[in-house]
Structure to design on (160 residues):
């Protein structure tokens, strides 16, 4: 297999944060595919979802693999001047994160993009995120990820 290098991996290496690279036999773009390829539970997969308001302000909302993000809940944790949140387009995701849709991680984002993790993530000892490349994922300690992302913790998921 080819060696995978991404800005996410480079960021973790620069900060001396331990992780385990989990390469896929083929590119994946969904939580289900990624969990199956990595041989891990969907319960420790972190979905990174980019939301935008009408004035093109962006926020990264992260929930566990079995959950859905609640944009209205996220809205309560961004500045009051931000208007209704909606899901970013594939083009916006690539432009803001530098990653294709389905391979986004909550690291290496531009300044000014808040990162909010659902509180359920804190109950995991380890989590899986995208490496920024659909050909591999990363497993790391949850607290290391929260610290590296500078994430705010809040109740932002709909699990139903």
């Amino acid at each position: 297999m080819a060696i995978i290098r991404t800005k996410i991996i480079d960021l973790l290496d620069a900060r001396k944060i331990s992780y385990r690279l989990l390469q896929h036999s083929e590119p994946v773009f969904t939580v289900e595919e990624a969990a199956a390829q990595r041989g891990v539970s969907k319960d420790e997969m972190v979905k990174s979802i980019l939301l935008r308001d009408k004035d093109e302000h962006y926020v990264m909302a992260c929930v566990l693999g079995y959950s859905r993000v609640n944009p209205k809940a996220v809205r309560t944790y961004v500045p009051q001047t931000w208007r209704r949140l909606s899901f970013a387009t594939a083009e916006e995701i690539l432009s803001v994160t530098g990653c294709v849709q389905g391979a986004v991680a909550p690291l290496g984002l531009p300044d000014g993009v808040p990162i909010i993790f659902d509180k359920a993530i804190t109950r995991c000892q380890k989590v899986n995120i995208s490496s920024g490349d659909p050909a591999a994922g990363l497993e790391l300690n949850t607290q290391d990820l929260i610290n590296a992302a500078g994430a705010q913790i809040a109740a932002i998921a709909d699990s139903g």
